[in-house]
Amino acid sequence: MNLLELVQIPDEKRDPQWEIDFFMSITSGKLKLLHEAPQTGPDGWPYMLAATSEDATEPANKIMQWAATKGIGIAVNPHKDYPDYVFTYGMLWHFKETGLFYKTADEVPVGTLEMSEGQKLHAGPPAPHYLPQYVRNILKEFFRDQGILQPRILVMSTDRKNYDLAISLESLKNPPTKEHQGIAEAISWFLPPHYSLVLVSEKGLPPFVEL
After folding, report:
1. What is the pLDDT of residues 21-38, one digit of tens each?
2. Cα(100)–Cα(109) distance, rounded to whole angstroms?
3. Which tens digit of pLDDT belongs to each residue from 149-182?
4. 100-108, long-range: CB within 8 Å, 24+ apart, which pairs?
5. What is the pTM of this model?
6. Which of 4, 8, 27, 160 has its CA 20 to 30 A from that of 127?
7. Which range marks the domain in which residue 54 is found?
């Protein structure tokens, strides 16, 4: 099925295979940009709005590669009651780096992390493939807009297989616990869906690094 046929399938008949087929089709397909500049979505994030149509001429892959360097998402067919697909910024930069929008994973925790005493921990700054410099710069800009000038991060793992991106609560000016979930959800828009993000105190942990 091509892209135009896939978006005709009713929402209730779309299964995981539909998503796989959609990803394959859109990366080689064409889109029509509805605006030259990004628009703010209902969730408050910036998106390029694009439509699938017979007269679409812009390679979708080119739009995605561009958006990945700008901190922008893409909404496909936003004129419908529900867009056919909404790509967060995290999905787009991960696609630019790996060719995949995300990796399948068990439910990814977002929030706070509790560690038992004596638990072994491997920790350090993020590798460039895990969090490229241009993504760090875009995240830094987001934090700057919130008045956070020096956010600190650390990548942690207890088994060297599953990794958490930890954000220092102290560098976020110690927000109240009730705000942690909302903060983590906002930051997660900038990350691929399979990334695990936690907000933690630096106390008792290896040194954090500046974002």
Report:
1. 999 999 999 999 999 999
2. 21
3. 999 999 998 877 888 999 999 999 999 999 999 9
4. 101/23, 101/192, 102/192, 102/193, 102/194, 103/192, 103/194, 104/194, 105/194, 108/193, 108/194, 108/195, 108/196, 108/197
5. 0.89
6. 27
7. 3-98
